[in-house]
Amino acid sequence: MTALTKTLGIDWRDRAKWRQACINTTWCLIGCSIGDIGTILFFQISGIPWPTLAIMILAIVNGLLTSIALETIILSRQMILSLAFKTAIGMSLISMIAMEAAMNIVDVMVTGGAKINLAVLPLMLTAGFLAPLPYNYWRLKALGKACCG
């Protein structure tokens, strides 16, 4: 048994759980990206002179909101809308915040500000996917709860 397995009490080699964690993380990434990238792109195209930090904070908030909205729509196929919304709100904000932070840190590091271009998009999306993935696996494996999806 590895030290990590002993410490967290789970087996990190469960391929089925990794596959499900990847699917869940992808849905979360889609929702977060719509709000996050859309916000940054709006300020970039409109030329509204907000400070980079303000744009990034608004992008994170919008990313969280669109992720919750997408999750509510997905869950509403399985339950009534009010319960779907409550469930979406209760899903892991830790995962979404890690995703948003990773995406925005990569954006600033690569572009020097709040800017979207074709070179930074794959890097942002990769960072946004990988940052919360181990947590999402752990949450699914240890708690039986999906972060989203």
Give a written overview of the molecule.
The structure is a single chain. The mean pLDDT is 91. The protein has helices at residues 3-8, 15-46, 52-75, 81-90, 93-111, 120-130, 133-143. The protein is globular and about 45 Å long. The protein has one domain (19-143). It is mainly α and 149 residues long. Helix 2 (15-46) packs across helix 7 (133-143). The protein has seven helices and no strands.
Summarize the structure.
This protein is mainly α.
Keywords:
7 helices; 149 residues; single chain; mainly alpha
Helix content class? over 70%
Distance between the termini: 30 Å
Rounded to an integer in angstroms, the radius of gyration calculated over CA atoms is 16 Å
Counted by DSSP, the helix tally is 7
Order of helices and strands: HHHHHHH
Q: Summarize model confidence as the mean pLDDT.
A: 91
Tally of structural domains: 1
Shape: globular
Which structural category do the helix and sheet elements fall into? mainly alpha
The total beta strand count reads 0
The largest sheet is: none
Our estimate of the beta-strand percent is under 5%
pLDDT < 50 runs, ≥5 residues: none
